Amino acid sequence: MKGRVIAAAALAAAAAAVSAAAPPEKPNFVVIFCDDLGYGDLGCYGSPTIATPNLDRMASEGTKFTSFMVASPVCSPSRAALLTGCYPKRIGLEDHVIFPPHRHGLNPTEVTIATMLRKAGYATACVGKWHLGHVKPFLPTDHGFDSYFGIPYSNDMMTPAPDGRKGAILMRDDKVVDPCVDQAALTPRYTEEAVKFLRANRDRPFFLYVPHTFPHVPLFTAPPFEGTSKRGLYGDVVQTLDWSVGEILKTLRELGLDERTMVLFTSDNGPWLIMNDRGGSAGPLRDGKGTTYEGGMREPCIVRWPGRVPAGRTCSGPWGSIDVLPTIARLAGVEPPADRVLDGRDASALVLGTPGAKPPREEFFYFSAFGRLDGVREGPWKLRSVGGSNELFNLETDVGERFNVATNHAELVARLAARMTAFDAELTAAARPCGKLPGAPPVGPPNRKPQETKAP
What we know:
By secondary structure, the protein is α/β, with parallel strands linked by helices. The chain contains ten helices and 19 strands.
């Protein structure tokens, strides 16, 4: 009997030693990226007319950030920045968005979050809108994603189908599987694909990127979401997106992956205000999509990771989409690319609520929809310098940018303006080119005249 006890103790000790020596499980990452969602479009960010119970619950179970910045007020540059950790101008994709006639995209030599994580053994998938090049070698499967399913650019960019209709194309990997997709079914189909990926990869680390097509116009939804919002069709569409988030979170819970998975929810730029009732709301912020006021570039951001990210917390510390790659690198225990300049900084301490954590950067630069440097933020101060006119705002006391105090702080304005000039010169000199196919049309909106370089 005594020998059995000793043997059992020895086995337990050996098992404990093996367990102690085994590397910790790698965390999973899910990034949900909406299109044209406004700062004021979610219940937990103050919307009185759009019900978002799943996102509200996600915020109560995680951290809501109130000063999360994207790197451009339009689609393609913003997506490039999220995936590479760079200001769009650094990687040659700052000049507006990619249209169907274009034959350029994210350079295949760039390192994306997916490239970085797949090298570390992660399963990777992109489900939704890509908008970083719709021909090889610029597709998601050329940039570290094992698979792709979605519309490769904005859903208002219609192309002719073989049967004479015009519509948005749906792709799987590098093939068009539907030349005129039913957009009312898009969000449910994306959700089904996302859930399928989660179930298939439950036993290995994964990175799932879900860049939704909506609420970019044209707006579509389907039963049971039609007519459910006080905000009309736009609200119905956002509530459909909220349902989708709920399905992803429910699947993670069912698979027992909650405590191993960080989920980040945000959007590419602010609301398209000129769409009126078909566009969203920036809430207390000034202006929207296409502008370098806060409404164009400050987005709702919720991060949930039970046991790691503090629950029920609201954080005003500024960070942004360019910081996501280095933050994920730190949390995954992998090295970000060291052979190139990144603009992003590791914000993991801020995200995890580490006591005394400071924002990852001292300054943030605001680039226009066409790559012009319009402003810089340092601490509470934001200088916008456009067309020879200076606007200075204290964002801690005036988040709506109503009071220009530039004349009261001449020295600060001069110093920040000089910093803008120096940074833009430095960035321009070190910029890397986007990828282009031979004979590709010029980058920028088709048929744009040379003088048409101002942001909308």
